[in-house]
UniProtKB/TrEMBL annotation:
Classification via NCBIfam families: oxido_YhdH
Pfam families: ADH_N, ADH_zinc_N
Domain Enoyl reductase (ER): 9-323
InterPro entries the record matches: Acrylyl-CoA_reductase_AcuI (IPR014188), ADH-like_C (IPR013149), ADH-like_N (IPR013154), ER (IPR020843), GroES-like_sf (IPR011032), NAD(P)-bd_dom_sf (IPR036291), Zn-ADH-like_protein (IPR051397)
The name this protein goes by in its record: Oxidoreductase
Highest classification ranks of the organism: Bacteria, Pseudomonadati, Pseudomonadota, Betaproteobacteria, Candidatus Proximibacter
């Protein structure tokens, strides 16, 4: 038996609670992992609260991330006591996830825990930080350099936004952070933001083209915010889109793309191939300031995660939440 959050949906309704789970219920997989740490992402909040159609089968253990140690493996790349990390692959949606003490998964979904990080630090990064790195890499591969101008980061107080600011600042970029929480301005500046703007400047319907300002954008918000970010991006600039906190719609026009040559990169972290994941984690180990990571991380127990999921969706959580699944 092991402890985990289990989500059920039946005639009694939709509910998520911590309970004891029999190991015999674990899904198929060739690697069994003793989980040490997990985390809460926006998608986990939607899954636990039922406010988004994230969970595709029931019962389900949520949690799109985990870090831990292999207990047993029939996969050729992994053996007992290997330290591993998992992000995405539908875990916590269609396959039991990381908000539990034990997981059984496909070995192809795992990556080795970088030596630079503890398992707790890897979950402080989590899918949010890994996605932020993919966004930064997209801007770099586009050819953007610090001297090209400002980089806008939307949803700046969230997990993706916080890590993106820290990464971009360390790489020498001037970062403008968009947030709905003006009280967090000093926190965002400590991460490396040089200017803070109110999210309302971008959240309402705007013009097809706005004054050119951003050399690049990391957007975790979507909807009008993404449309306005594209409208204000400089000639031949780039926008990396990875989230939908404001909405899945994209009320824009082709104007930024055909008149200014703006490139919109879609960032998918869930099904990214292994080579992309390994490169991203290697870059995180090299370019992420651990001290800044610690400053945006708060630890909670497994039993606190259900309540915290609701707070996350309400925008009450700053930075990253790591979950100690063993307490």
């Amino acid at each position: 038996m092991f402890n985990g959050i289990l989500i059920n949906k039946d005639d009694a309704g939709y509910r998520a609670a911590v309970q004891q789970i029999d190991e015999a219920q674990l899904p198929e997989g060739d690697v069994t992992v003793r989980i040490e740490w997990s985390t809460l992402n926006y998608k986990d909040g939607l899954a636990i609260t039922g406010k988004g159609p994230v969970v595709r089968k029931f019962p389900m253990v949520p949690g799109i991330d985990f870090a831990g140690t292999v207990i047993e493996s029939s996969h050729p790349e992994w053996k007992a006591d290997d330290a591993v990390v998992l992000n995405g692959w539908g875990v916590g949606e269609t396959h039991w996830g990381g908000l539990a003490q034990t997981a059984r998964v496909r070995g192809d979904w795992l990556v080795p825990l970088p030596a630079a990080f503890t398992s707790r630090q890897a979950m402080a990064i989590g899918t949010a930080g890994y996605t932020a790195m993919l966004c930064v890499q997209a801007l770099e591969k586009h050819g953007l350099k610090p001297q090209d101008g400002e980089i806008l980061v939307t949803g700046a107080n969230g997990g993706v936004g916080s890590v993106a600011i820290a990464l971009l600042a360390r790489l020498g970029y001037r970062v403008v952070a968009s947030t709905g929480r003006a009280s967090e301005a000093e926190h965002l500046k400590a991460l490396g933001a040089t200017e803070i703007i109110d999210r309302n400047e971008l959240a309402a319907p705007g013009k097809p083209l706005a004054k050119e300002r951003w050399a690049g954008v990391v957007d975790a918000v979507g909807s009008h915010t993404l449309a306005n970010a594209c409208a204000g991006t400089k000639y031949r600039g780039a926008v990396a889109a990875c989230g939908l906190a404001q909405g899945m719609d994209f009320p824009s026009s082709v104007a930024p793309f055909i008149l200014r040559g703006v490139t919109l990169y879609g960032i998918d972290s869930v099904m990214a191939p292994q080579i992309v994941r390994l490169e991203a984690w290697q870059r995180l180990a090299r370019d992420l300031d651990i001290a800044k990571l610690d400053a945006i991380t708060r630890e909670i127990a497994l039993g606190d995660a259900v309540v915290a999921a609701g707070e996350l969706l309400e925008g009450k959580i700053r930075g990253r939440l790591v979950v100690d699944v063993n307490r």
